Amino acid sequence: MFTSSSFDKTLKVWDTNTLQAADVFNFEETVYSHHMSPAATKHCLVAVGTRGPKVQLCDLKSGSCSHILQGHRQEILAVSWSPRYDYILATASADSRVKLWDVRRASGCLLTLDQHNGKKSQAVESANTAHNGKVNGLCFTSDGLHLLTVGTDNRMRLWNSSSGDNTLHHCHVCSLLRRAARHA
Q1: Domain region containing 45
Q2: WD repeats span which residues (predicted)?
Q3: Number of DSSP helices (H) and strands (E) in the chain, helices first
Q4: Domain harbouring 91, CATH code
């Protein structure tokens, strides 16, 4: 089995034996991202990020969308399950925010990552934002202890996934790519 998603507003679950879609989830919005937990033993949920501000969780056992996570203000550009904890999900949005969720909780959101680690005034517009622009990529480290995010502000940030602290403040993606190209 493997999954795929598309701008045709679908998430498909494929049978690798027949190379046919075994199940299709249809959405009202364009699908930008999906992820199935690499560690889950107690659920078969696929997180789906769409052009809308809600994260949808599809249950492969029941064949239906089981929950909706609300809290972002714009489209969901990336989703990633923790490789360490079954029920922890990270979401990235065009609203410049990254949220960590425990999908078992009614309120869901555990924390919103803040690039300033709470040191700037709440009146500042960038307070409680992970980047100064859309956050269009994220992934957990293989041990699940950190979360790496990238944004349209050409910055990459490394976060402590337990505390939410920003541990990598000034890493420009372009300079990293230039450095990597020189060493290749």
Answers
A1: 2-181
A2: 1-24, 69-104, 128-169
A3: 1, 15
A4: 2.130.10.10
